[in-house]
Each structure stands twice: as structure tokens, then as C-alpha cells.
Amino acid sequence: MYRYLNPGYIDLFKNTPGTEYNQVTDNTKVKTKTGVGFCSRYPGEMQIPTIPAGIKEMWFKLDYYTTSAQLLFQLRIRSSNTYCGFGYNDGAGFYEQRVYVNGSYTSLSCNQTLGISTYWFHILSDASNGIFECIRDDVTLFSKTGNILNGEDISNITCGQNYSNANRLISNIIVSDTAIDMAEQVMAIPCNITTDMTDNGDGTYTATALNQYLRFGLDSSIATTLASGTKITGASLAARSCIRDGEGIETLEAYDGATLLGSDSIPTTDKTGVSVGVTLDNTVSQFLTHNYEWRAK
Q1: N or C terminus: which one in the chain shows less Cβ crowding within 10 Å?
Q2: Phi, psi at residue 264, to the nearest 5°?
Q3: How big is the CA angle at 56 (ends 53 and 60), to the nearest 5 degrees?
Q4: pLDDT digits over 132-145, tens only?
Q5: Among residues 123, 106, 125, 145, which one has the least CA distance to residue 61?
């Protein structure tokens, strides 16, 4: 299974952003539900971590904040030979919104509601029975069926916008090959860190030997902050601005106890990170029994 969770950190994507971007802390949660958001001017499209081969169906959800009716964010879901997407026309004026199916577009009339809106996308790649659809705040903006991505595997997903001003922010991102509910939301979980890596004293850690670990003790105080009956639908181990600057350690492996959840290559460029996600169906008390950690490999 594939799951990517990002509250709104630009350095949890696979690539380095363009030269114009903003990472915003939103402590009052006026512009985001998560307390963090970002904007990155085109062509600074942010790419989610590598999608495994063989995935043909995907769900994508994000929150978008704006103080203008101009809808300037865009999404591109690519296969090896074509793409589907949503967003502005970056060649003939920002006010024309478009949906792209296999590289061809149809104009839409869907100016942004001021404030925070939630966008939900679903795509199924199939040569004849494919689906590409979008819902914004419980209103369907478009729904296309038929040939979607020619039945090819989904290989790459990016999101971004054509504005680097903090009055337009992307946050609360969930990408999964299992269905996402409109009500799902990303949150950072407080943890108690246990590690044999070098603690740099500034919230960062350095692995200098193979098999060193960074263990996350889930803080039980989250049980008092969540509503009764809250379900935990997924978890992600993420490392922000994670950089490999030498030889020997090239990968971080994610574990839940002795169970390997997945791995991600450590990048060599700034403003990038690693992420391994897992789909869950846990109560809060069940979630607190997990024992997550990174191991250097």
C-alpha cells in the first residue's frame, strides 16, 4: 500500500523547490488546519515521494487557502506517456481554470471560495473504464470517465501553484492508493525520541554508522486532544531536510517494532525529505501501541 502524509512542509517532498517559495507557520490556524503550509511559484511543482510500480488507482486530497478568487494551484498526475491534471492555464491568463485528461483540456468555471477549501481527487487509470474526478467542499467540480492515462501505471504526482505569496497556501496533503475520506486530516503527533544517532542539539540528528536508529515514543497525551471515536487511518514516518553528505549510509528504513514498513533513499539536496507511510484503521488507544523507528542503512 502507498500512503503519503504532509501537514504542509515543502521539505517533505522529493524535489527541491524553485527559487520563489514560502514555508509558513500558521499557529492560529487561520490559513491552515495543520498549522503549517507552503507556496512555491511555478515551475516549482513539488513531487511526492516515489510511487511503487503497478499502481493504477490513487486518491489525492489537499487544503488550499486564498484571499483571491483566482485559483492558482495545480495538480498533475502522470503516467509514462501522458497526464491528467487540474488547475490554471499558465499560458493564457490565470482566471481560466482547466481539467486535463490525457494531456487535453476542458475549461472550467470554478473560482476559489475565499478562505480554506478542501480539494479531493480520485483517478483510476484504464483504457476504457477509467475515472478522473474532483470534489471541492462536497461539491463535484468535474467527473470524467473512459480512457484515463491509457491504462498505464501512475508514475508521478506533483502539486504547486503560480504564486509565492503567503496569502495562497497548500497544506493538509494526503495521497493514497486506498480511498480517502473528505474528513481525514493530517496532524503531527508528539513523540519522545530515543536514539543512538548524534543529537545535534537543535532538533536534528546525524547517523554516522549503519543500523543506528531514531525511535519515536508516541505521546499518550494525544488521547486528550482528539474527539471521542477518532480513527487513525494512516501514519507516516518523515524526515525533513534529510541530507546524505557522505558514503556508507544511503537509505532510511521505517519499522513498526520488528516489521519493516518500507524504505526511502536519503537525498543529497536541501529542502527535500524522506517519507514512508502506512494505512491503518486504529482507535487512538490501538495507535499508541505502535513502536515506530528509522534505521540507517
Answers
A1: N
A2: -145, 140
A3: 105
A4: 999 999 999 999 99
A5: 123
pLDDT of residue 90: 54
As a whole number of angstroms, the distance between CA 292 and CA 229 comes to: 23
Tally the C-alpha atoms within 13 A of residue 205's C-alpha that lie toward its C-beta: 17
Burial of 8 (C-beta count, 10 Å sphere; 0-12/13-18/19+): buried
Determine how β-strand 198-199 pairs with β-strand 104-108: unpaired
Q: How far apart are CA 134 and CA 131, in angstroms?
A: 10
Q: Is 4 exposed, middle or buried (0-12, 13-18, 19+ CB in 10 A)?
A: buried
Cβ partners under 8 Å of residue 104, min gap 6: none
Q: Which distant-in-sequence residues (6+ apart) come within 8 Å of 18 by Cβ?
A: 40, 41, 42, 43, 44
pLDDT by residue (tens digit) across 199-226? Answer: 999 999 999 999 999 999 999 998 888 8
DSSP code, position 152: P
For residue 3, the model assigns a pLDDT of 96
Query: Is 109 a residue whose pLDDT tops 80?
Result: no
The torsion angles phi and psi of 223, rounded to 5 degrees, stand at -60, -30
If you search the block for the grid coordinates 534529510, which residue do you land on?
242
Is there a contact between 51 and 175 (Cβ–Cβ < 8 Å)?
Answer: no
Q: DSSP state, 90?
A: S
Using CB atoms within 10 A of its CB, is residue 106 exposed (0-12), middle (13-18) or buried (19+)? exposed
Q: Would the pTM of this model clear 0.70, i.e. be above it?
A: yes
